[in-house]
Amino acid sequence: MIVSKNPYNGQEIQKFEEYTKDQIDEALEKATLTFKSWRKTSFTERSKLMKAAAEELKENKQEYAKDITLEMGKPIKQAVSEIEKCAWVCEYYAENAEEQLADEKIATDAADSYVRYEPLGVVLAVMPWNFPFWQVFRFAAPALMAGNIGVLKHASNVMKSANNIQKVFERAGFPEGCFQNLVIGSKKVEAIIKDKRIKAVTLTGSKPAGSAVASVAAKNIKKSVLELGGSNALVVFEDANLQEAVKTCVQARFQNTGQSCISGKRLLLQENIEKKFMKLFLEAVKDLKSGDPLEEETYIGVLAREDLAKDLEDQVNRSVEQGAQILLGGKRDHAYYEPTIVGNVTKGMAVFEEETFGPAISVTTFRDEQEAVDLVNSSSFGLGVSIFTEDFDFAKKLVPQFDDGAVFINELVKSDPRLPFGGTKESGYGRELSEHGIREFLNKKTVYFNKY
After folding, report:
1. Which of 261, 274, 338, 426 is flagged as catalytic?
2. 90 noted as active-site residue
3. Closest among 174, 217, 178, 171 to 198, alpha carbons compared
4. What is the pLDDT of residue 27?
5. 360-366 and 340-343: which strand pairing?
6. Which of 79, 216, 379, 407 could form a disulfide linkage to 68, CB 3.0–4.6 angstroms apart?
7. Which among 115, 358, 79 is positioned nearest to 231, based on CA atoms?
8. Nearest in space to 6 (alpha carbons), one of 302, 260, 254, 312
9. Angle between the N-to-C axes of helices 76-100 and 61-72, in degrees from 0 to 180, rounded to the nearest 10
């Protein structure tokens, strides 16, 4: 039995009967049979259905957003924005997939030669709870537009949202079996990956989960894409617009109650602006309203589970024992953890080395650009970095020095359907979104015509 609970008040939302082996087999067989016909549909037909999915999301965004908030505590305004972003990615691929997957002509000594992009088949998506709709849709929209079929293993604490996602595609008119939610726990994932009907797997989640999934996929010679954790740095140089940088850094760290792989978790400040920046930053964080996630004005809700709040509390406390100083917050009440700023942080401390998944940010100072680059790259993660400077020429020189999968200047790291998204090192491999993402789960088929 899978139980969905409201992390804000602890009340049970709904119980779900976990799929039996026979039900899983039935779902995978349905997906396989659907693929045979779905792969033959035109881009025009797929586009029509994907636009209908976008309309369904927009028309019922309040309904879907409320379930997100109830299940994992996301503030309701942010939950609505998540649904709207899902509609955007559906529209983006509905309008661009045909061009992105057009045959690619390549000049050779052949009479004609080109690359065709063809779907692989049934793709398993193992997804997390922190953006319960967006994480799924940024996989599902390109996968379905490419002619693949999606089956979802979602986090157990957001199973109602998982069923809602299947409902979106059903209401939009997609053929039965195009996208299915498997009501299962983590223990059943390995057997599904091994199943011959599954052709590839994508996972967004933690390093241990990614390592386990990638290992099983590799042993069975199946393509995998991993989007894992991050410990993004927010690097503020002395010439930055401090007021604007503060606004961006607050949003980068504290939206979604800090529960995002691409949150800015390590604040790196050039020494001579530390005092001025921190005065503004402390004031801005103090102004964030905590409370009931269902209230419109709430910006900081609760963490998705109490154990997650305890983990964050432990990381902060260990860092204090190592010499860090709590400048703001630091207290926990069940699943709620106060917006917290930890100063005097150096390499080796828990909040610097580990991924902190919640509303706590570490503060470290640096002398010059080389030290800043070294601090950023010292992380075992490599998802993204934000740098703040008014000198774009200086910024362009810095970009190649970072190991991360993304560099944002004067902006928080964020996903955009038009741009590839993914990381390096322990942040995973492969890319989602844009034309790069839609081509991940395809057979890139070489075609060569010779004329005798």
Report:
1. 261
2. no
3. 217
4. 98
5. parallel
6. 79
7. 358
8. 302
9. 120
- Which of the residues 56, 227, 274, 426 is marked catalytic? 227
Per domain, the residue ranges of the chain are: 2-228+427-449, 232-416
| Distance set, CA 404 to CA 78, 203, 232, 413 (Å) | 26, 19, 9, 11
Structure tokens at 277: 């920046």
- Residue 20 — φ and ψ, nearest 5°? -80, 170
| Rounded Cα distance, 59 and 65, in Å | 12
Handedness of CA 291, 297, 299, 303 (dihedral sign): positive
DSSP assignments along 130-185, one per residue: SSTTHHHHHHHHHHHHTT-EEEEE--GGGHHHHHHHHHHHHHHTPPTTSEEE----
pLDDT digits (tens, 9 = 90+) for 271-285: 999 999 999 999 999
| CATH architecture classification, 232-416 | 3-Layer(aba) Sandwich (3.40)
Asked whether the predicted pLDDT for residue 452 surpasses 90, the reply is: no
What class has domain 2-228+427-449? alpha beta
Quote the radius of gyration of the chain (alpha carbons, Å): 23
- For the stretch 312-328, pLDDT in tens is 999 999 999 999 999 99
Which tokens is 40 given? 């033959």
Say what the pLDDT of residue 230 is. 98
Neighbours of 224 (CB within 10 A): 24
Query: What values do phi and psi take at 174, rounded to 5?
Result: -65, 145
| pLDDT confidence tier of residue 209, bands split at 50, 70 and 90 | very high
> Does 227 participate in catalysis according to the annotation?
yes
Alpha helices in 220-330 (DSSP H): 242-254, 274-286, 306-321
Cβ of 104: how many Cβ atoms within 10 Å? 11
Task: Give the per-residue pLDDT at 395.
Answer: 98
- List for the chain the helix, strand, coil content (%; round to 5): 45, 20, 35
* Tokens linked to 413: 């790291």
Structure token pair of residue 91? 């529209």
How far apart are alpha carbons 412 and 398 in whole angstroms?
A: 17
Check residue 451 and give its pLDDT. Answer: 87
